[in-house]
Amino acid sequence: MSLESVEEDPGCMAAVEFVTSLSDDELATLDSISLPSGRAAYSAHTLDILTHLMLTTDDDLHEARKHAFNVPDDWRPAEPPVGEPVGNPAVDRVLKIVNRYLLACER
C-alpha cells in the first residue's frame, strides 16, 4: 500500500484526521499506553511490522504477511479451541456454554 493510496482511502483518512485532531497532551497520553504481554501486545507488534511494510513497499496485507513472517500463500492461523476465552465476559460465558454442549455431543 503506497502513501498515495492511503490518502485516497476514506477509512485511512478518517484515522489520520482523528489522530491529527488530538492535542499534544492527548497524543502523549495515547503514546504512554502500555499493552500487557499477550494477545494485545503481540497484535500491536504485528500491526507495526505489517503497517511499516505496507507503507514502505507496494505490498498489500497478504504480501506483507508473507514477507514479514515467511509464511506460504495458503497459510492460515490455527483455530483456537471453542472454549478459549476472548476477554469479553459476555462472549466468554457463551463460548463456555457452547464448548460444554459440543463436548457432550462428542461423548
Automatic annotation (TrEMBL):
InterPro entries, A to Z: Cas9_alpha-helical_lobe, RNaseH_sf
Species of origin: Bifidobacterium pullorum subsp. gallinarum
One Pfam family it belongs to: Cas9_a
Coiled coil spans: none
Boundaries of every Cas9 alpha-helical lobe domain copy: 9-80
Keywords of this entry: Endonuclease, Hydrolase, Nuclease
The UniProt record lists the keyword Nuclease: yes
Protein's UniProt name: HNH endonuclease domain protein
Gene3D superfamilies according to UniProt: Ribonuclease H-like superfamily/Ribonuclease H (3.30.420.10)
Any one GO MF annotation of this record: nucleic acid binding
Nucleotidyltransferase as UniProt keyword: no
